[in-house]
Amino acid sequence: MSTPFITFDQGEALLDWVSFTQALEDGHKLPKAEIGDTFLYRGKDTLLSRAAWIDGLGIAVKSATVFPDNPDQGKPVVNGGVSLYADGDGTLDAIVDFHLVTKWKTAGDSLLGAMKLARSDSKNILIVGAGTVGRSLCEAFGAGFPDAKQVIWNRTTSKAEELARSLDGVDVAEDLPSAVDAADIIVTATMATSPVIRGEWLRPGQHLNLIGAYRPDMRETDDAALQRARIYADSFDTTLDHIGEFKIPLAEGALTRDQVLADFYNIDGFARGTDKDITLFKNGGGAHLDLMTSRHILDRWNASQA
């Protein structure tokens, strides 16, 4: 039997968001992943490879090529694939489309955090950011909170309107503070380097779910939000010392390490406390999530071929 290459469309047809969050939760019950990143450069072009090895799940190497001039040729800036290897003997199990893995890993990670931390009676979800990730979040949170109303805010309102027109039952917000006040769940997926969500806007009982910041100089919310919230992360290793959301306030003394209460490797520690608590979840990503995602996709693929 030849090694499968699972395309985006083939994988999409096999997946659902709620089952996927369970796969992520199960993956964190296995031994902690060994992870490593490498970067290669040629001028402004980049090859990024992220590797993870989880005993019992296998090995994944997710390689991304970033070629900024590609749009001039009608090609995407980012391309790549995930090579998935067997746990027992290291043989190649599958090659999985890069964009498929990234979409489901990113949105599913945040959905799992929200399903653990948001109020079960949440009725209004605000998606901040109308890019590719924003679209995935509308899909994911629509599945995880099917009775909730979704609203999109974007710095450029026309982009939010364009995304909303392509989705059923999604509205557009023009005023961000008012939209935050009306929301039970706020999910941010921006490229902001300074806070877009202010702690003073938050009210008791809300859940704030942060995705966009991924560099040491990036933040989507401010110190006031951190100080008002019960704080959680998907992984201590990929957030605390690496992303500005935590790294900056930790260095400045606005946040202490013990205020970040748990990550997915202690998912039993995820708890609201009371319905009046504000909860905050930081999505830091990481190659271990790419491995869990790829393995789930291959499992679904294999089941479909039986």
Characterise this structure.
It is globular, with a radius of gyration of 19 Å. It contains ten helices and 14 strands. The two termini are 13 Å apart. It has two domains: 5-102 and 288-305, ornithine cyclodeaminase, domain 1; 105-286, 3-Layer(aba) Sandwich (Rossmann fold), CATH 3.40.50. 43% of the residues are buried. With 306 residues, it is α/β, with parallel strands linked by helices. It has an eight-stranded parallel beta sheet with strand order 9-8-7-10-11-14-12-13, with helices on both faces.
Beta-strand segment tally: 14
The CATH superfamily of the largest domain is identified as NAD(P)-binding Rossmann-like Domain
Q: β content, as a range?
A: 15-25%
- Summed up, the domain count is 2
CATH architecture of the largest domain: 3-Layer(aba) Sandwich
Number of helices: 10
Q: Please write the string of helix (H) and strand (E) elements.
A: EHHEEEEEHEHEHEHEEHEHHEEH
User: Mind describing the biggest β-sheet?
Assistant: 8 strands, parallel
Summarize the topology.
Blueprint: E1 5-6, H1 8-12, H2 17-27, E2 34-42, E3 45-54, E4 58-66, E5 78-85, E6 92-97, H3 98-117, E7 124-128, H4 132-144, E8 149-153, H5 157-165, E9 170-172, H6 176-182, E10 185-188, E11 207-210, H7 223-228, E12 230-233, H8 236-239, H9 244-252, E13 260-262, E14 279-282, H10 287-305
Parallel strand pairs: 1-6, 7-8, 7-10, 8-9, 10-11, 11-14, 12-13, 12-14
Antiparallel strand pairs: 2-3, 3-4, 4-5, 5-6
Helix pairs in contact: 2-3, 2-10, 3-4, 3-10
